[in-house]
Write a structure and sequence with these properties.
By secondary structure, this protein is of the alpha+beta class. Helix content is 63%, strand content 13%. The chain has a four-stranded antiparallel beta sheet with strand order 1-4-5-6, with no helix packed on it. A two-stranded antiparallel ribbon has the order 2-3. Helix 3 runs parallel beside helix 12. The chain has one domain: Outer membrane efflux proteins (OEP), CATH 1.20.1600.10. The longest helix is centred in the middle third of the chain and has 67 residues. It comes from Bosea vaviloviae. It is found in: Cell outer membrane. Pfam families: OEP (PF02321). GO terms for molecular function: efflux transmembrane transporter activity; porin activity.
């Protein structure tokens, strides 16, 4: 016959555990943030302004911008100046004509030849090579801007994910720690009842085993939280302290999956970058082919020479020469490079299809994850409610000897698992909403309305595009 369990002692710990669990869930998804709490928007703003990966990509874009003035230089003249100075000593001994006396004409000349000049080369016609080079450089810039936008998306998504991971793991750690406290109290009561003969040694062993398992879960939860904190520090740049609740951004998403696919396939940054890559590759074919065609240019030279022939002479010369160059045969190198460029252009066109398929899969996956998370939250809430009712019922039945200690422990564990599942589902819903926005290509500081200065990718381009000289960068380096 089952023995009755000591009454009132379950009630207090049950209330404490329930309150602690609800607080943990509220910290993840609901609740009210304190005045000094870190918010999701603040974390994303800091990641946007200071993430090393994102800043590296911005520097890469600025370097790509310099391709445009380099290509434009093909339209401009090239001016070089040269100067030289030296010494010349000439001694000659020439026999005198019609002389039988053996006399010779001796001369000694000492000169200091020197001079300087300026040469100007101006391209007039290069079979469209410069024009194609400029267009290619501009396509590379546009592609780099799209790549930067995609990097911004990835950084913001990583920051949002790490933010929610810290909240989730904090809540789960709190649940496990409170479960340990409840099971410690359960073990103490079971041992007291064993002393008075109400339960057997088996009941005590079951309580001890369940407590050890709970302690192990708490240790694992603490380790997971440390890992999430490290990832948060990596993605955001600061340590997480008093994180405010996270909420989904479903109001920023397309209403249906077909609408989301349409938005993604027409405007995702990775697809746009691939399309610009095709343009750049096709223009490279034209740039390479231009080496097979004639070029025409003009060269102007002005020189001033001193002591070039005899001491004290002074000569000034100037010339303007038109030069036509017609390639005949260069060993087959240009032909090979042209074929190579065409194959590369074909590869870039295939890459566009690959990116479209990748984006489509990402949208469908993220959308499915969001829908699943919503359904999991509803199911988990029902599971928690049922587990709470079951635990209460099992405890009441245990009081009158209808349930064993193991039944109570199992019901307690089921409630902890249900609440952990609810916490995880709530985290998944928030992360999935950010994942969908990223998959359609709209996760940005402007869309999220972050309170941070937006990086203007065109500013540096406008600053360097028309620069004619100077090695100093616009930021003063």
């Amino acid at each position: 016959m089952r023995r009755p369990v000591t009454r009132q002692k379950f009630d207090k710990k049950s209330v404490e555990f329930g309150a602690a669990a609800l607080i943990a869930v509220a910290l993840l998804f609901g609740g009210v943030a304190g005045a000094s709490a870190q918010t999701m928007d603040a974390a994303l703003s800091r990641a946007y302004s200071g993430n090393p990966t994102l800043n590296s990509q911005r520097a890469s874009l600025r370097a790509t911008n310099e391709n445009v003035p380099q290509a434009l230089s093909g339209y401009r003249p090239r001016i070089t100046a040269s100067a030289d100075i030296g010494a010349s000593i000439t001694e000659s001994d020439i026999p005198a004509k019609n002389s039988t006396s053996g006399f010779h004409n001796n001369s000694l000349s000492r000169l200091g030849p020197r001079g300087g000049g300026v040469q100007v080369d101006q391209n007039i016609f290069d079979s469209g090579k410069t024009r194609s080079s400029v267009s290619q450089a501009e396509s590379l810039v546009l592609g780099a801007r799209a790549t930067l936008r995609n990097t911004e998306q990835n950084v913001l998504l990583d920051a949002a994910t790490s933010y929610m991971n810290v909240l989730r793991d904090t809540a789960i750690l709190n649940l496990n720690r409170n479960n340990v406290e409840v099971l410690e109290e359960q073990l103490r009561q079971t041992r007291d009842r064993f002393q008075v003969g109400e339960v057997t040694r088996t009941d005590v062993a079951q309580a001890e085993a369940r407590l050890s398992a709970s302690q192990s879960q708490a240790i694992l939860a603490e380790s997971n939280l440390k890992t999430s904190i490290a990832r948060f520090r990596q993605n955001v740049g600061i340590e997480p302290k008093q994180l405010a609740p996270g909420r989904p951004i479903e109001n920023l998403l397309p209403k249906t999956l077909p609408a989301a696919l349409n938005v993604a396939l027409t405007g995702h940054p990775s697809i746009i970058a691939s399309l610009h890559g095709v343009d750049a590759a096709e223009l490279l074919v034209k740039v390479t082919e231009a080496d097979l065609y004639p070029t025409f240019g003009v060269r102007g030279v002005v020189q001033q020479r001193y002591d070039s022939t005899f001491f004290g002479d002074n000569r000034t010369s100037a010339s303007v020469v038109g030069t036509l160059t017609v390639p005949i045969y260069e060993g087959g190198q240009v032909y090979s490079r042209t074929r190579q460029a065409k194959e590369t252009a074909g590869q870039r066109r295939i890459d566009v299809d690959t990116q479209r398929d990748t984006v489509r899969a990402a949208v469908v996956s993220a959308w499915g994850g969001l829908e699943a998370a919503k359904a999991q939250i509803i199911a988990a809430q029902a599971q928690v409610q049922a587990a709470e009712t079951a635990l209460s019922g099992v405890r009441e039945e245990a009081k009158v000897g209808q349930r064993t200690t193991l039944d109570v422990l199992n019901a307690q564990q089921e409630l902890v698992s249900a609440r952990s599942t609810l916490v995880t589902a709530q985290r998944d819903r928030v992360v999935a909403s950010y994942s969908v926005l990223s998959a359609v290509g709209r996760l940005s500081s402007e869309t999220l309305k972050l309170k941070t200065e937006t990086y203007d990718a065109r500013k540096h381009y406008d600053q360097v595009k028309g620069l004619l000289w100077g090695t100093q960068t616009p930021d003063g380096r």
